Amino acid sequence: MSLAMRPEHADITPDMWPQIDEVIAVNRSIKGSVIAVLRQCQDVVGYLPVELMEYIASGMNLARSDVFGVASFYALFSFEPKGRHTLKVCTGTACYVKGIKEIITRICNEYDMEEGGTSPDMRFTLEPVRCLGACGLAPVMVIGADTHGDVSSDKVVDILQAYE
Amino acid sequence: MDRFTIEDLTAARTKAAAVLENPDIFHLMVCSGTGCHATGSLPVVEALRQEVAQRDLGDKVRVVETGCNGFCAAGPIMVVHPGDIFYQKLKVEDVPVIIEEHILKGKPVEKYFYKDPVSKKKIPSQDDIPFFAHQMPRALRNKGLIDPESIDDYIGRDGYRATAKALQEMSADEIIEEVKTSGLRGRGGAGFPAGMKWQFAKASPGETKFVLCNADEGDPGAFMDRSILEADPHAVLEGMIIAAKAINARQGYVYARTEYPLAIRRLGIAIEQAHERGLIGDDIMGTGFNFHVEIYQGAGAFVCGEETALMRSIEGRRGMPRPRPPFPAHKGLWEKPTILNNVETLANVPQIILNGGDWYASVGTETSKGTKVFALSGDVNNIGLLEVPMGTSLRKMIYDIGGGIPKKRKFKAVQLGGPSGGCVPEEYLDTPVDYEEIAKVGAIMGSGGAIVMDENTCMVDMARFFMDFIQDESCGKCTPCREGTRRQLELLKKICDGKGEPQDLNELESLSDVIKETALCGLGQTGPNPVLSTLRYFRHEYEAHIHEQRCPAKRCVALLKFEVNEELCTRCGMCARACPVDAVEWEKKQLARIDKEKCIECLTCYDKCKFNAID
Ligand SMILES: Cc1cc2nc3c(=O)[nH]c(=O)nc-3n(C[C@H](O)[C@H](O)[C@H](O)COP(=O)(O)O)c2cc1C
Ligand code: FES
Prior knowledge:
The structure holds 2 protein chains of 2 kinds. Chain A contains 7 helices and 4 strands. Chain A is of the alpha+beta class. Chain A folds into 2 domains: 3-73; 85-161, 3-Layer(aba) Sandwich (Glutaredoxin), CATH 3.40.30.10. In chain A, strands 2-1-3-4 form a 4-stranded mixed β-sheet, covered by helices on one side. The longest helix of chain A has 12 residues, at 16-27. Chain B is an alpha/beta fold. Chain B has 24 helices and 17 strands. Chain B has a 5-stranded mixed β-sheet with strand order 12-11-15-13-14, with helices on both faces. A 4-stranded mixed β-sheet of chain B has the order 2-1-3-4, covered by helices on one side. In chain B, α8 (172-182) runs antiparallel to α9. Chain B is globular. The N and C termini of chain B lie far apart (70 Å). At the A-B interface, α2, α4, α5, α6 and β4 of A face α2, β11 and β15 of B. FE2/S2 (inorganic) cluster binds next to α5 of chain A.
């Protein structure tokens, strides 16, 4: 089912469109489901390009401003393309007390990037996140499905080597 | 699977309990919470299953993946019943030995026992380990004892009996009365009596009502709710069903943090299984009562833990709080009467219904009944999850259960209540866990995060850290919170950078008063607490930053020289070995020197030097 004209976008490949349409179709009539739709579409594409949000708005029959407003409010949503691996570094209290700041400095230095930014080679995106609920392992970093605990500023570079 | 009637439940319980309590087989309970997953429990489980299959021990051994055991510092953990034998820090290679010695020959393997750091003795039984010995599991009664993905295991431990009792034998008023008698207060932070909240919502007119569970767990340093959901999701669902009967709701939502994939998965499985058995959904156990539950995933906004914001977020809007009244008990989700309770609050409800409110209230203090779950972390030996009777002292939590402060360092403070809370210094460590007593010393009970800080923590930097959090998470709707916290953060940054002026402390205090009094929601109203509490107990640290341009804990980079102190340096070379960028020059028995060109100011050497010799 095609809901509206699919816009051209370099980061949205042909196989992604049916998945996006499916998400919209399933949620279309559910009240208040726009956050879930944005989350699932972001899972498909990796981030939320403006064109995609416009497409979602028309597919969900919502005002553009509603969709943009919601997307910009929540930290989960990103409007920029991300690196091949997203490094979620915990900036919660336990991790802070155990020295996450030093680890972030180290990563930024090593890969020439900023907090929240992406390395020039698109390898890593460094995303400071709120407590990951794994404080027992502080300081904590999550890469994809892997949780790395007890990270230190020297160990972190070894850990990252495994992620090309 | 056929739908259960109440008689079926009784039969199922007997059958499941026979499996759980079977003394003729070995039950290998491997912790499979987020913590142990990260330290490698999944490969251990895999290896155990393989070993059991290879040796054809299938009918002698049950390998169970449990929820968080609590003692995260010792992971991966396995507890073997019968015998309650506690194995810690297991690796795949250790599996054959344990199967060979313990399972086949009946000799538990001492090598993997917990070793008491004080007596240096190995302790075989979980219950004898100090970390567990002082605890009283109630909300966490099933942790480590069941497979959270198996409803049969839960039923075998009296699961859904409370639901059956509430739906069949009790009226809504009786349920509310029982919860009131128990003295159960909200575990999400504010401590509002649960029974009273339910009563308001029941009295509210309306056909459509909602029961919500707050699993947003936004306080950094808190992982109680995650662990409960990972270890015992059905207990929370039961709490919701019972609450629904009390206020006559048909629909419930669990609002869960998206950062908790494992908890969300297990809760989803629990809902599905309960549905299949007719324990959730239409006509629950043939009683005619209908109640449906859905999970709603948050999207990373701290303020959405606040009740009115949470409801807006479920409605698919920007999660901004609104002024109260009207209270959610009258106008909540979609403008309908709604109750919102925290995960831990709800997990306590089934036991209250089964054993009675008086039983629950038999433990605790005058105003705080029952038990409280804490997530102990930071600079403490036994990091993990614990549940203690109300009235237990903070000292007991940190020293007897937590095993004290590592690296022979001195305790400085314990932070309770996250960004809405405060720090408790050494002199008040005998304060009991009690809503009112903790408030008296300038902190709050909060949701249960307890972060221990040693002498190397800078309290001004901590205040800055929390203000940064509040400022970042402020939704921007009300001016005092939006502008006030920004100004406070500026002041704190200035002080950390050594540019503070004497009048800054007064300005911090007066701003705090204004924000607390005029902010719209709890985020702003409690946001200045970390500043006030550090000013109260650690004013001298602020003053050292301002008057002497000195950070006593040596954490504030702008105030550090990155020079080795000739007198204190023992020439040990620790700093040189630790430096990640080789910026420390050192040769045997020589004074170390930091090359400032190479130094990235990461503070690793400060942390590693045992002699405080870097200025
Ligand atoms: C900014 C803010 C964040 C909150 N975050 C949470 C949270 O993450 N979890 C929670 O249970 N309660 C949180 N609360 C408290 C809730 O508003 C509400 O009081 C609580 O969920 C009610 O449940 P209880 O009475 O069972 O504690 C928060 C409150 C505020 C003001
Ligand atoms: S503070 Fe980092 S996981 Fe909790």
